[in-house]
Amino acid sequence: MYAAVLLFVFMCWTASAHADQHHPCRSPNMTGLLSVMGAMGEVRAVGVFTYDSMHKKLRFQSNSSLPMNVTLDLDLLVFFEEGILYKIDSKNQSCEKKSLQSKKHPFAIPNDATYISTMTSGSTFIEGEGLKFQIWTIPTPGYKGQSLMCATMGCLPLSTIYMTDSSMFIYSNLNVELDIKDPDLLVVPPFCQGLHVEETPEGTVYGFYEEFL
Ligand SMILES: *[C@@H]1O[C@H](CO)[C@@H](O)[C@H](O)[C@H]1NC(C)=O
Ligand SMILES: *[C@@H]1O[C@H](CO)[C@@H](O)[C@H](O)[C@H]1NC(C)=O
Ligand SMILES: *[C@@H]1O[C@H](CO)[C@@H](O)[C@H](O)[C@H]1NC(C)=O
Ligand SMILES: *[C@@H]1O[C@H](CO)[C@@H](O)[C@H](O)[C@H]1NC(C)=O
């Protein structure tokens, strides 16, 4: 699988010789499902996400009791603009507040992304049988990594491949609707309010992507 991804990356680099002027677009507000798959095909997380693209707020809840062998039980509330990540445990009403270094995540094409090419998954010629998408590469400072994102022409991120020298994850956005179903999900729960960010290494996380390691 790793080799296949590297080949894909190589083809993208080759195609980039023809790249013209494309600028990262801003994704709309979204509600949908996020699935996170690891290099061995294991499902790390699956759950509902809510993303406010204007205020750059995200809620993601993965539920390991789904019948899919999901590894992680996660409930994250992230304020990318402020660089704050809450790990929420609704069962015992507890919460950790961490400072977030990287603003990158699978719901928006970052401003430093580079356009690679446009492709169609399925058929270009048969109406309704093809999905046209753009491929972007995303810098991963501090890692010998590589990240690629595919997004529709309307700026809906479809999938993101995130590779470091030791791991690889594929983030897929599914069943997306273009609004926020439950704005309360983007509000800090009462039991998380008034917390301070710990001034320790444990109080800092690099980015959203690393929460799935
Ligand atoms: C996205 O949702 C926020 C409320 O959470 C709203 O203020 C904003 O206008 C919405 N953006 C769009 C493009 O609908
Ligand atoms: C996870 O799913 C189970 C079964 O559908 C449900 O009972 C439980 O409340 C869910 N947990 C969370 C945190 O959503
Ligand atoms: C879930 O994972 C366990 C061990 O990792 C494996 O034995 C089992 O077959 C898996 N179940 C499904 C439905 O994939
Ligand atoms: C909440 O529960 C988790 C495990 O479900 C545990 O690790 C954590 O320490 C608990 N927190 C509190 C404050 O009880």
Layout of helices and strands, plus pairs?
Blueprint: H1 2-15, E1 30-38, E2 43-52, E3 57-62, E4 74-79, E5 84-89, E6 94-100, E7 114-122, E8 130-138, E9 146-152, E10 157-163, E11 168-177, E12 204-205
Parallel strand pairs: 6-12
Antiparallel strand pairs: 1-2, 1-11, 2-3, 3-4, 4-5, 5-6, 7-8, 8-9, 9-10, 10-11
Bound molecules: 2-acetamido-2-deoxy-beta-D-glucopyranose (4 copies).
One 2-acetamido-2-deoxy-beta-D-glucopyranose binds next to loops.
Q: From the alpha-carbon coordinates, what is the Rg to the nearest angstrom?
A: 18 Å
Q: Judging from the principal axes of the Cα atoms, what is the shape?
A: globular
Instruction: Please give the number of β-strands.
Output: 12
At CATH level 3, the topology is outer membrane lipoprotein receptor (LolB), chain A
* Strand residue content: 35-45%
Helix count, DSSP H or I runs of 4 or more residues = 1
User: Can you tell me the CATH class?
Assistant: Mainly Beta
- Strands of the largest sheet, in order across it? 7-8-9-10-11-1-2-3-4-5-6-12
Oligomer type: single chain
Architecture (CATH level 2) name: Clam
CATH homologous superfamily assignment: Lipoprotein localisation LolA/LolB/LppX
Taking the sheet with the most strands, its summary is: 12 strands, mixed
**Could you tell me how far the N terminus lies from the C terminus, measured between alpha carbons in angstroms?**
18 Å
Q: Roughly what percent helix?
A: under 10%
List unreliable stretches of 5+ residues.
Answer: none
Q: Give the total of domains.
A: 1
Average pLDDT, all residues = 88
Bound molecules: 2-acetamido-2-deoxy-beta-D-glucopyranose
